[in-house]
Amino acid sequence: MDMYDHRPGSAFDNSRFGHVDASASFFCTRRLNIGNRRTANVTSKYQQKQFVCANMSDKRSGSICKLNGVEGKAPFLIGVAGGTASGKSTVCKRIMEKLGQVDMDQKQRQVVCISQDSFYRDLTPKEIAKAEQGQYNFDHPDAFNETLMYETLKDVLAGKIVQIPSYDYKHHTLKKDEILTIYPADVVLFEGILVFYFPEVRKLFHMKLFVDTDSDTRLARRVPRDINERGRDLDQVLSQYMNFVKPAFEEFCSPTKKFADVIIPRGADNSVAIDLIVQHIRDILNNKRNSEERSISPPKVTVTPVGSPSKKVNASADIIFHRPH
Ligand SMILES: Nc1ncnc2c1ncn2[C@@H]1O[C@H](COP(=O)(O)OP(=O)(O)O)[C@@H](O)[C@H]1O
Ligand SMILES: Nc1ccn([C@@H]2O[C@H](COP(=O)(O)O)[C@@H](O)[C@H]2O)c(=O)n1
């Protein structure tokens, strides 16, 4: 039985990478450390139109999946939604800090974070020109490549290494020369304004958090952030906010709060909520570890033949199952 009830993996849509120079194709082999406990040789392939290292088996047994014949773990996937500048990234950072994951090599991490912004669609030159004038709606669901998002998360759940571009807010493009490699981890956080909007994506999460910060605070944080970090001027930030960000929040993001398992008022300021979530994650990881250890050394099981219930076939068995009549 699948511990987290995932569906089997499927084909990968790479349409967003259609214009990557074919010379970017290469193969690499690296040693992969899975959850600090197992090490496997993984041959990864990254080429035009492809940024998932797909050279691994997708077959899974319980929460265990096979990586080139070596068993790896399916992660616990947590969705973190909330309005712009609500503190999603900061909450994820706090969770990672409290789980001791920040000052750690990427490959060793048991908890990793992926941003939904890496799944913005590529824009045409005309759309980029609109974006530069604050006239493109980045807060509408159509701005995202839903298929790619879904397939990438499926790969993450299948224990595969995935490679995703980081996002360049200054130029409204994906940084295809700055690819983030996400190694298999025990916990994967996926944060973004619309992570609960797409039903198929939403179903993949084991736990859903919604960071609920009031809109005045969010705007007060977004303005300096966009000016200082995202290369915008005040007029641009305010007109984009009034024309697109605020209406889209009300229409598409805010209604997804109802899907959350946990709502975090005040975001990263809410250390009580964050501590509870961290403790819950620890409990889940401990249970998962215990059940994996049990599955690695299964108890001896003996079937007592029907009609001879008193006859012990194996005297050293720890558990005896009786066949149903
Ligand atoms: N609790 C907080 N107190 C003060 N500033 C915060 C707090 N949480 C986030 N910020 C700041 O607000 C901005 C947006 O936060 P961030 O976590 O990036 O939000 P999101 O990921 O939801 O867009 C950042 O500049 C961040 O440093
Ligand atoms: N080129 C872009 C892409 C996105 N945005 C805005 O980013 C917001 C989502 O990121 P948060 O960290 O704030 O959650 C979203 O509201 C978009 O408007 C942008 O301005 N430019």
Question: What do these coordinates show?
Answer:
GO terms for molecular function: ATP binding; uridine kinase activity. Pathway: Pyrimidine metabolism; CTP biosynthesis via salvage pathway; CTP from cytidine: step 1/3; Pyrimidine metabolism; UMP biosynthesis via salvage pathway; UMP from uridine: step 1/1. This protein is of the alpha/beta class and 325 residues long. It folds into two domains: 14-50 and 299-322, no CATH class; 65-286, Rossmann fold. The protein is built from seven helices and 14 strands. It has a five-stranded parallel sheet with strand order 7-10-6-11-12, with helices on one face. β8 (162-168) and β9 form a beta hairpin. α1 crosses α7 (271-296) and α5 crosses α6 (234-253). The longest helix is centred in the C-terminal third of the chain and has 26 residues, at 271-296. The chain is globular and about 60 Å long. The chain starts with 25 loop residues before the first strand and ends with a strand. Bound molecules: adenosine-5'-diphosphate and ligand L45E5XJ5. Adenosine-5'-diphosphate is lined by residues 82, 84-90, 221, 225, 267-269.
Task: Give a topology summary.
Elements: E1 26-34, E2 38-46, E3 60-61, E4 64-67, E5 70-73, E6 76-82, H1 88-98, E7 111-115, H2 125-132, H3 146-157, E8 162-168, E9 173-182, E10 187-191, H4 199-202, E11 207-212, H5 215-229, H6 234-253, E12 262-265, H7 271-296, E13 301-304, E14 319-322
Parallel strand pairs: 6-10, 6-11, 7-10, 11-12, 13-14
Antiparallel strand pairs: 1-2, 3-4, 4-5, 8-9
Helix pairs in contact: 1-7, 5-6
Bound molecules: adenosine-5'-diphosphate and the ligand Nc1ccn([C@@H]2O[C@H](COP(=O)(O)O)[C@@H](O)[C@H]2O)c(=O)n1.
